[in-house]
Amino acid sequence: MQQADAENRASRHARPASTSAEAPGGLAAQVRLEQTRQLYDALPLALWVATTISALVAVVAWSQQPDPAVLIWFFVLLGVTLARWAMLASWRRAAPGVERAETWYRTFCWGAFVSGLVWGSSTIVLVEPGAPYLQAILAFLVAGLGAGAAISLSATWTAACSFLLPALVPYVAAFALLRQELSGVMALIMAIFACFMLLMSRQFARARSAQIRKQLEADRRSEIWRIEQQRYRTLVDSTSAIIWECEPERLEFLYVSAEIERILGDAPSDWVGRQRFHAERIHPDDRGDALDRLEQGAVNGRRCSFDVRVRTVDGRDVWLHNDVNPYLVEGEVVRLFGVMVDVTEQRRASRTVEYVSGLQRLLVEASHALIHPVE
Questions:
Q1: 304: Cβ–Cβ under 8 A, 6 or more apart, which residues?
Q2: Cα dihedral 315, 319, 325, 326 in deg (nearest 10)
Q3: In this model, does residue 6 exceed pLDDT 80?
Q4: 40, 232, 324, 354: most buried by Cβ count inside 10 Å?
């Protein structure tokens, strides 16, 4: 009954894990959560870099043309950046699970889109005709910002596009509309660069997504294996026999079930690590035969059974029946698994039956001698 209850409990615990592992929606939600976590983890560095570049752009633009619009643009971008810092702080406090992952992901993408719009709007304020030096600096800085965004937002392509498109496309259009000697070349370069960043971010996103799925599936398999191992241990510990695992060369115990404490009085840890099958606890008359059988099983890989007397903690001798099953890999014994069952009472009962049978034979022979005396 205890064994059945333990198995039922373990089955109830194991079933949800395997169900969730098989459900595609569950895995997709986990992937989205991990993608969102990676986006928010990369956000602090991206915000610091964006703030530094925006300050540099504002200083350069102000030095070329002191226009209040430059300051307005800078402070609007600074406000968006502070809002994204607040969003990051809320994410960390909330520590959301899979059920809220999609909402936080969309919030992040909207933040990236608004930031990209502000960067794209800088073309209205900063890109002016007759200032090739400023145009070259802006193109260089925005290209660097786009390259960094393609990497930091590579967890998903949608997140990368949310920033890259509104940030880079206006620059391509602005340079194309300037109609200066090199503006067309700059527009073409920016267009090629934007396409390259989008393609690169897509490849990054696919690789990152595949890596996340692979890791999550490995984690799920590991969790299922852990639950199954716990279920197995629960079933083993609920039996009335000692289950053991042994290393074949040194006959060293690697695992002993908790039932040993009830039968012999030892904790399992007292036996784990003991070599030669803890031979000092085996009765001297049984020790040699037991070790020979174990060593033969470790060499030839055949199952064997034997009875031995083992001394308990309080000094009694207990008869244990051993069933040993070698585990082979490519024909080589790599483990010995076994079961010890307490057969002391059966031994006593057998000796009692033998004694009674012998006594009965003796009485029969004595009666026969009395009735039919030898002449």
A1: 293, 294, 296, 297, 324
A2: 40
A3: no
A4: 324
Quickly count: other Cβ atoms within 10 Å of residue 330's Cβ. Answer: 5
Res 373: pLDDT: 55
As a whole number of angstroms, the distance between CA 156 and CA 106 comes to 11
**In the 8-state DSSP scheme, what is residue 79?**
H
- The token pair at 115 is 């930031």
* C-alpha to C-alpha distance for 3 and 177, rounded to whole angstroms: 81
Q: Dump pLDDT digits (tens) for 314-361.
A: 989 998 888 888 888 888 889 998 888 888 887 776 655 454 455 445
Each as own residue / partner, the long-range contacts of residues 208-212 (CB below 8 Å, 24 or more positions apart, any chain) are 208/35, 208/38, 208/154, 208/155, 209/31, 209/35, 209/155, 209/156, 212/31, 212/34, 212/35, 212/38
**pTM of this prediction?**
0.57
pLDDT confidence of residue 10: 41
Distance in angstroms (rounded) separating the CA atoms of residues 283 and 68:
98
Residue the block writes with tokens 């307005």: 72
341 closest CA partner among 316, 324, 319: 319
Least confident stretch, 141-155, 169-183, 241-255, 295-309: 169-183
Q: Among 263, 277, 259, which Cα is nearest to 342's?
A: 263
